[in-house]
Amino acid sequence: MSSLYERRCRTLLRAYPPSYRKARAEELIGTLLDAAEPGRDIPSLGVSWDVVRGGLITRWRARPPLHHWLAYRLIDKRVPYRYRMWVRDDVLGRWHFARSFASGFAYSWLFMLATWTVMSLITGDSPLPLPLPYGDGWWLLIGLCAVLLFVVAPLLERRTRRRILHKHEFLPDGTPCEESQPHADEA
């Protein structure tokens, strides 16, 4: 097979999680090259679909359940041991700081909206202006969010990554600690 075919196969394998690719990429590439039709420069549409679908299913299965994911994103809780590789891939992945910031931002808006709703129900009218951007002031909010997202968050990212990796028993470079074992309550 041509090296173009192999490069296309490697591109398709990006649908799989990084930890899965690291462990099994050569095996998958070998299988795809062995099963390829002679003379093809690119994988067929069916093969491409199967590889991407398998990668997305693998990503979905590696994710923690919604309640663990929300606790991880919103209150910085440790996920169960079996999902720690997902955490490592998340923390070492591109745009981790943006995902963290966006979830925190959404959480604070939901909290303000819930507070506004409860106050409205208690008093019977709207005690506060609705906490949504309106008028000319919303540009200030967007500017503040942009500064936080693109200036402050990247400065704090290194420390945040180290803290999360340490909490999930990884070294700062993402390799597992030697003594890490499932805890009794997580096994």
Compact overview of the structure:
Helices cover 66% and strands 0% of the residues.
Feature tags:
single chain; 187 residues; mainly alpha; 66% helix; 2 domains
Ends distance: 44 Å
Structural class: mainly alpha
How many individual helices? 7
The coarse overall form would be elongated
Radius of gyration: 22 Å
Helix content: 55-70%
The run of helices and strands is HHHHHHH
Mean pLDDT: 81
Verbal overview:
The protein has helices at 3-12, 18-35, 45-62, 66-75, 84-92, 96-123, 138-167. It is mainly α. It has two domains: 3-62; 66-167, no CATH class. The two termini are 44 Å apart. 12% of the residues are buried.
How is this fold's topology laid out?
Elements: H1 3-12, H2 18-35, H3 45-62, H4 66-75, H5 84-92, H6 96-123, H7 138-167
Helix pairs in contact: 1-2, 6-7
